[in-house]
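== Protein entry: sequence and backbone fold ==
=== Local backbone shapes as whole numbers ===
==== Amino acids and backbone structure tokens ====
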Amino acid sequence: MRDAIHSGGPSRRNPAIDSLRGFCLFGIAVVNVFWIGRSRPLYLDLFLDHPSLTEGDRLFGWIVEFAFEGKFYPQFAFLFGVGAYKNCEANPKRAVRRFIALMVLGFLHSVLGWSGDVLFDYGCIGLILVFLRRLMIRWGALVGLIGIFASVLIAYKWDEWPIQQMDLSQHIAQLEERGKAYRSGDFISISFLRFEDWLKSFGTSEWSYLANLVSMVILGFGISNRFDFEKLNKEFMAKLAAMAWMLGAAISVAVRVFIPIYVLQADVLAIAYASSWLLLANRWQNSSLISFFEKAGSVSLTIYLLETVVFISVFYGSGLGWLDRLGVFECLLLAAGTFLLLVILLRAWLKFFLMGPFEWMWRSFAEMRLLPIWR
């Protein structure tokens, strides 16, 4: 997707959008390192004040939960919708091939990498949007907004709240047993576990997440026909950021009373993050910081997949087997260090090649031919 989440080719790009995509990649790395590196979810240990947590773990853990968890995948999904619109309008047949290729890549990533993959979901949603593009170009923005609120109702009805369950000890025991299998298993046995967990990701407890993901993609798709991302209105973006931060803060307080609105809280704060970042990117467009994240955003597929490779090599039994052995701050260092190293290496890569290695493989697979890659 030329301007969605996976691109690195020579086509004209939007630097501000690329930098936002790179910023989201960093946030997603921070979140994913805990989902991959711990047998129990971080939020569960924090709420239960697990004895394995130090004071530093609690401090940084709550920072992760409030500032990162759930705030970046909605932005990424929205950006995917923007790119899906451009692809569908430019060449619907090519878009179909790319989305099917993305589904294949996502399935392989789920089984061979991490069961929390999102690429398969993106491919399925994109494929549907190709065939409903005329309808969604007209009504996508409204459908997306309705879907976001529907996600809250779905969370209320079907989300599982382990902290409220009577069999909490049994739930934790199951998680820890699963963690042992990941920590000590070989690549083949872990791949079977990943496949099982990937199938579970379509269960009722994940429906609110999936509904929200679909809604954000559709919202990005529908807005693209009405909003010029090449010419951002700074005054509008500033007002949007201020409103989103205030509303997000209010919903954050309300979450303590009605937990399912955490979905809405995450989306509103995602809007606050995105609008604030775009303002920053336009004001400091020539800065080295924005340039750094812009480069990351141009090879987002490669960074996303290689982050998984690094994390499973550290935590799973097919690698070092350090699952549950790193503290919260150490995991944060691993995520930040991995992201930084990958961006540095890929900046060097792009001096000789037109796009990232996984972007090239994905596009070549979609076109059923080897695309040029050397500069």
User: Anything to note?
Assistant: The chain has a mean pLDDT of 90.
